[in-house]
Amino acid sequence: MANVGLCREHYRLTVRLADFAKAEPGQFVHLCPVADEDTAYQEFAASQPWDGTRRRRRLVSPMLRRAFSIAGLRRAAGGIELDAVYRVVGKGTAWLSTLGTGSTLSVLGPLGVPFPIHPVKRHAWMVAGGAGLPPMLWLAKALTQAGRAGVALCGAQTADLLAVTVSGEPAPREDASEATLAAAEFAASNTPVVISTDDGSLGFHGHIGAALTAYHQAWDKDGDDLVVYTCGPERMMAFVARFCMDRAIECHVCMERAMACGTGMCQSCVVPVHDDAAVDSWRYRLCCKEGPVFRADHVLWEEPAPAR
């Protein structure tokens, strides 16, 4: 097992497995400690402060599983290596950041619906914001292997929150019309990128939606030969979805929800979608089993009003 820091808050965890079922980009795994076996977890739990009212550690044990997109999957000597890129935002991901060689981990997967690769359309744009980057790393490789011309548009609030290795010249501050092999992880699959940051500290100065708009204006691809894939903050994905729907461009979104079980049993990770056959023409679908990848034009981006 390896755990490498990529930027201020993101890490790439590589887990070695004896075997793993067939999987595709867009699918995810559920990770949690093997509490009785994992010394790192026990030490991390013991380091948590006491709750003064309940006299127990503030880290709840056993820890619920966390869902992470598969960022890479490859056959290695003696087994399979699986990559998960994650951002430290709470106790669960803080625990993940303590893992290293010799640590053990419970892995459930692959889970969910993958990204579809269109059998005919040649161009594919991947729009990733913040922590939405991981599934695009593996998708870029799959698109290249399928003979598609992929471009990744990667956005972050600031340069030190961008979870890629910048090894070339990114887009200039005022121009997002040119994609370059500036990110090593995407360059490995010969995928050029447009990098944007909200504060202008790296690449194009502006949010990723503005970068997408500028890039599309420069290249003017239409829905006959282009598919867009996106993952990131929901507000960003809603922008990308509407951008594509306005131009009749096929778009697929990778949604994020808290997934306590990952198998549909807890019924908690719902996404509202259009359904003409349902009452009020919409219904909920489970992100873990019927997603996390959805057609952008199927998702209700504004939460429907409650039934009276």
Describe this structure in words.
The longest helix has 13 residues. This protein is an alpha/beta fold. It folds into 2 domains: 110 residues, Translation factors (Elongation Factor Tu (Ef-tu), domain 3, Beta Barrel), CATH 2.40.30.10; 121 residues, Rossmann fold (3-Layer(aba) Sandwich), CATH 3.40.50. The strands form 5 sheets. It has a 7-stranded mixed beta sheet, sandwiched between helices. The chain has a 4-stranded antiparallel beta sheet with strand order 1-2-8-7. Helices cover 18% and strands 30% of the residues. The chain contains 6 helices and 18 strands. Strand 7 and strand 8 form a beta hairpin.
Listing every helix as H and every strand as E from the N terminus to the C terminus, the arrangement reads EEEHEEEEEHEEHEHEEHEHEEEE
The chain-level structural class is alpha/beta
- The helix fraction, in percent, is 10-25%
Mean pLDDT: 89
Instruction: Catalogue the unreliable spans.
Output: 55-61
Total helical segments: 6
Strand order, largest beta sheet = 13-12-11-10-14-15-18
Stated plainly, the CATH topology of the largest domain is called Rossmann fold
Molecular shape: globular
Percent strand: 25-35%
Supply the CATH class of the largest domain. Alpha Beta
Distance between the termini: 52 Å
Going by CATH, the homologous superfamily of the largest domain would be Nucleotide-binding domain of ferredoxin-NADP reductase (FNR) module
